[in-house]
């Protein structure tokens, strides 16, 4: 199997040692090929690639806190009855807390019109402040709402910010609309005005057109029986100009009949957006469209820095009714420029069976300024999996500093035996990568790539059952998540997270996900405690895994220890 569509630069160099250098790059000498901005060929010296993320100081250095605001849902429609803005009143760790103990009155307004207000505690986050939609008219361009925070004790306005807020007319010609929940990260879609919103935790693969779909339209039937979304990687004939609509249309028709969602992989180049405009214009009303995948690893390829942002604006101006996503390969190469191009960021972290410090492909060392090892700047943690958690956490940290509303998806490694990767992951490794991503906030899983091995297809078919189970997804995309739970035992490399349904008054329940990152069994007892004030009263269901957890002093424990790479997902009762 070939990765030719994804790593064209690298493969072309492998195949044609004398090929001309690529044109796109901007930070390198003209005859030095780069990936993630770094020289990677043994014949070229390392240079500083630049583009390292710099932590931006708080906007007002004197302020003891800062206010950030984003709409609860990425878009509202004129059929919506209620709306809200999520407000964080972030107290920096250096704050003089004695001077800001007051609660705040947060007011949302548009010009002279007050749209809503709520009192908010200093240092709190994700406060939902209602917005009165009746005072707004639906329009295609986002509103810029003014948000102010006033001290309840002195009435002084302490901080002001703005939030872009989309309140759109319902597009009657559309077969579907979709949006993101900026509170819990889920995707919601609606097929026509008369249907209700459905919550989706997308679980699927990137699937190669030329290696799978192109065989027969019936491939969709098999795939849709297991997975809730499809992503067609436009390899082979889908790269033809003009786009082969006659060949593609039966797939669209069949997807609509099957009711499967489509993340459409838009084909375009930074210097010619004609095909992007054509594809989005043609497909925006199709009932299967869930999201637009605008770029695959633009940072790795070092596309022009403004390319993803310009594409984002172009797509939004044609179709504001579906979210936009992209995948990033690099750990730290112009993150804020490339990530500006999407509502959904999917980091690619492929750590299994690659040498992280020495490129077996190009015979050079790999470090922060040089080399390509297939997993950029990886090796950050105590296990081979640790980069997955680290990458998601770090991207989210950057988003928070910038003040962005972004959703994170994750692309586990379901390929191998090629270029940098000496073998495929095993099924337990793939389950570990997947749930580790989920524990660290991934709100969809798109495995790279399909076709894959029978072993991996087997475990993803099982995992698809987990992500299609509303008893599970009602936690994953319907309740707040706490990661990095305290684990006693397990050698310090057992990762755990919990989701707690806050709206339940009595018999509260929680979902707990526990992942042993150690290949070896760890001896017991291994005990996972929930955050303070939460006490487990019983284990209700094992939704993944066969390890028997019991309750002891309000925590869950397994006396006999954990198998290597054990993954346990449990629904527990609290009380
Ligand atoms: C980089 O490597 C290429 C390919 O070997 C070579 O043609 C080019 O001269 C090198 N550039 C520099 C600046 O060393
Ligand atoms: C913190 O704020 C209090 C109350 O305004 C003030 O008295 C105190 O001097 C401040 N401390 C520092 C270190 O700025
Ligand atoms: C703040 O404003 C409210 C309402 O206008 C008023 O009742 C209150 O006295 C004011 N408080 C201060 C400290 O000025
Ligand atoms: C609001 O939208 C404008 C125009 O697209 C953009 O420049 C700005 O960064 C956005 N603001 C926020 C807070 O996202
Ligand atoms: C939606 O429901 C209304 C009222 O029941 C009906 O008149 C209309 O035809 C329906 N529209 C569609 C697109 O099904
Ligand atoms: C841009 O792409 C379109 C088709 O996608 C093609 O017809 C057109 O010639 C291209 N324009 C330029 C300037 O290359
Ligand atoms: C985008 O960046 C390219 C390369 O730096 C530049 O030539 C172009 O003018 C920019 N486009 C816009 C619209 O800013
Ligand atoms: C990576 O390659 C280097 C150089 O060949 C070797 O010394 C090292 O042991 C390799 N590391 C792994 C984890 O295979
Ligand atoms: C990365 O490796 C290259 C080649 O050995 C070396 O020249 C460069 O200084 C290294 N960079 C860092 C940041 O260590
Ligand atoms: C690994 O790749 C080689 C070369 O493409 C192929 O011959 C072999 O069958 C592959 N092995 C597996 C297990 O996929
Ligand atoms: C909570 O559990 C108790 C005991 O099983 C049961 O009697 C009660 O109906 C439950 N309450 C709710 C709201 O489910
Ligand atoms: C749990 O046990 C069942 C029955 O033996 C098996 O089919 C399933 O694969 C096991 N699940 C895991 C995650 O190991």
From TrEMBL:
Please give the InterPro entries that the UniProt record associates with this protein: GH (IPR017853)
Task: Report which superkingdom the organism of origin falls in.
Answer: Eukaryota
Q: Name the UniProt key words of this record, in alphabetical order.
A: Signal
Tell me the leader sequence span. 1-25
**Protein name (record):** Glycoside hydrolase superfamily
Task: Give the organism's phylogenetic lineage.
Answer: Eukaryota, Fungi, Dikarya, Ascomycota, Pezizomycotina
């Amino acid at each position: 199997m070939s990765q030719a569509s994804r790593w064209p630069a690298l493969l072309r160099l492998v195949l044609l040692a004398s090929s001309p250098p690529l044109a796109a790059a901007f930070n390198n000498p003209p005859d030095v090929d780069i990936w993630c901005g770094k020289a990677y060929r043994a014949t070229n010296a390392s240079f500083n690639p630049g583009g390292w993320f710099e932590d931006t100081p708080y906007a007002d250095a004197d302020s003891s806190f800062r206010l950030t605001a984003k709409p609860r849902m990425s878009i509202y429609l004129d059929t919506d009855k209620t709306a809200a803005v999520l407000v964080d009143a972030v107290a920096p760790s250096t704050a003089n807390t004695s001077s800001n103990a007051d609660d705040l009155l947060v007011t949302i307004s548009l010009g002279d019109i007050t749209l809503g207000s709520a009192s908010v505690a200093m240092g709190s986050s994700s406060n939902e402040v209602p917005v009165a939609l009746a005072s707004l008219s639906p329009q295609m361009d986002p509103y810029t709402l003014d948000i102010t925070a006033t001290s309840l004790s002195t009435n002084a306005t302490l901080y002001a910010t703005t939030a872009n807020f989309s309140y759109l007319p319902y597009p009657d010609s559309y077969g579907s609309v979709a949006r993101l929940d900026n509170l819990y990260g889920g995707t919601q879609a609606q097929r026509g005005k008369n249907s209700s919103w459905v919550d989706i935790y997308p679980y699927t693969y990137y699937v190669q057109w030329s290696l799978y779909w192109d065989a027969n339209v019936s491939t969709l039937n098999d795939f849709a029986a297991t997975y809730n979304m499809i992503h067609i990687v436009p390899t082979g004939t889908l790269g033809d100009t003009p786009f082969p609509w006659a060949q593609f249309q039966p797939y669209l028709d069949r997807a609509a009949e099957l009711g499967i969602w489509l993340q459409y992989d838009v084909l375009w180049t930074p210097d010619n957006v004609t095909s992007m405009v054509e594809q989005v214009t043609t497909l925006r009303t199709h009932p299967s469209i869930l999201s637009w995948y605008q770029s695959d690893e633009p940072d790795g390829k070092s596309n022009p820095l403004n390319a993803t942002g310009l594409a984002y604006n172009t797509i939004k101006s044609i179709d504001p009714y579906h979210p936009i996503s992209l995948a990033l390969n690099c750990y730290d190469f112009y993150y804020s420029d490339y990530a500006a191009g999407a509502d959904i960021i999917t980091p690619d972290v492929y750590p299994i069976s690659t040498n992280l410090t020495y490129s077996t492909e190009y015979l050079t060392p790999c470090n922060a300024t040089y080399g390509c090892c297939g997993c950029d700047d990886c090796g950050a943690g105590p296990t081979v999996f640790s980069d997955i958690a680290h990458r998601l956490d770090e991207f989210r940290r950057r988003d928070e500093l910038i003040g962005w509303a972004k959703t994170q998806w994750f692309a586990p490694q379901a390929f191998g035996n090629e270029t940098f990767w000496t073998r495929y992951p095993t099924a337990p490794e793939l389950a570990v990568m997947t749930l580790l991503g989920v524990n660290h906030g991934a709100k969809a899983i798109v495995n790279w790539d399909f076709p894959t091995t029978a072993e991996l297809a087997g475990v993803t078919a099982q995992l698809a059952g987990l992500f299609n189970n509303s008893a599970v997804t009602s936690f994953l995309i319907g309740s707040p998540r706490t990661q990095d739970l305290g684990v006693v035992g397990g050698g310090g490399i057992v990762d755990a997270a919990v989701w707690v349904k806050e709206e339940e008054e009595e018999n509260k329940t929680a979902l707990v996900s526990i992942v042993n990152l150690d290949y070896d069994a760890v001896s017991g007892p291994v005990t996972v405690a929930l955050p303070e004030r939460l006490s487990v009263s019983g284990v209700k269901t094992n939704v993944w895994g066969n390890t028997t957890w019991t309750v002891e002093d309000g925590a869950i424990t397994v006396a006999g220890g954990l198998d290597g790479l054990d993954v346990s997902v449990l629904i527990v009762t609290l009380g």
